Amino acid sequence: MNVVFLGPPGSGKGTMASRMAKRCNLLHLSTGDMLRAEIKQGTELGNLAKSFIDKGALVPDSVIIDMMSNRFLEEDAKNGVLLDGFPRTTAQAEALESIANIDSCINLVVAAEVVVNRVASRRVCANCGEVYSIKTYAKSDCEKCAGELTIRPDDNEKTIRARFAVYEEQTAPLIEYYTDKGILESVDATMPIEEEAEYIYGILSKI
Ligand code: AP5
Ligand code: MG
After folding, report:
1. Whose CA is nearest to atom 17 of ligand 1?
2. What confidence score (pLDDT) does residue 84 get?
């Protein structure tokens, strides 16, 4: 089973994909996390990606499509993948069709003001990438690996608003794209986290 998690920045794509990966024993692939790992390693791809990420703009389609085509060739992707943050443009969605068969698109629905607030409260483990909110987790180290919890450089209000505008212009058209394919499932992403996870699990269990 291959599933796309679609939604604006801060809608909970990472939070939900990570929970479903554990429950369904599938691979969670976040293009944002992959690009941040490249930046951390100082690779050519990382340096290129950073210039776009810092502005809240999308990394060019050709770069992302190459990265994901190669990633899908790896053995651990053969069992099924939960895609978080990919595809993000119609060109990426069309390219994905020749890479993998998509069974469902989970569309997380949440308003801009809610995500600006959420992202301001987000902390991310510098070691394993686990996502927290200071509203529900008061410690400064990761529950899983004791890594330091940090603020993502693109989580300032100016960049988050730019990311939201980019989402509306370039990514929201994918709602219609996957509706037309008959596989879109919209989810109210303002539910309490565990309730929302249960709801999404219910959708995935029927596939
Ligand atoms: P990426 O890392 O994918 O960022 P994003 O899409 O902006 O999404 P976020 O990671 O900010 O949010 P999320 O939806 O994962 O929410 P989370 O679970 O953390 O991409 C970063 C950049 O990389 C892009 O701007 C672009 O430059 C580049 N990029 C990546 N992919 C690309 C692609 N395909 N093409 C081109 N460029 C690409 O949750 C947010 C917070 O809310 C957390 O604190 C969480 O605890 C909390 N939360 C979650 N759910 C709930 C809930 N139900 N109630 C209350 N709080 C909740
Ligand atoms: Mg994320």
Report:
1. 12
2. 98
179 CA distance to ligand 2 middle (Å): 23
pLDDT at position 27 is 98
Residue with tokens 């920045």: 9
Q: At what angle do helices 157-166 and 112-120 cross, to 10 degrees?
A: 140
Determine which one of 19, 36, 50, 88 is catalytic: 88
Counting ligands in written order, the one closest to the CA of 48 is: 1
Which of 106, 133, 164 maximizes ligand 1 atoms within 8 Å of its Cβ, making it the mutation to test the pocket?
Answer: 133
Going from the C-alpha of 146 to that of each of 32, 77, 122, 133, 143, the distances in angstroms are 22, 28, 17, 16, 6
Give me the average pLDDT of each 10-residue run along the chain (207 residues). 97 97 97 96 98 97 98 96 98 97 98 92 92 94 96 92 96 98 98 97 97
The model scores a pTM over 0.70 = yes
How far apart CA 168 and CA 166 sit, in angstroms, is 5
pLDDT at res. 119: 93
Ligand closest in space to the Cα of 91: 1
Interval between CA 114 and ligand 1 midpoint (Å): 13
Closest-lying ligand 1 atom to the alpha carbon of residue 53: 27
The predicted pLDDT at position 187 comes to 98
SS3 of residue 16 by DSSP: helix
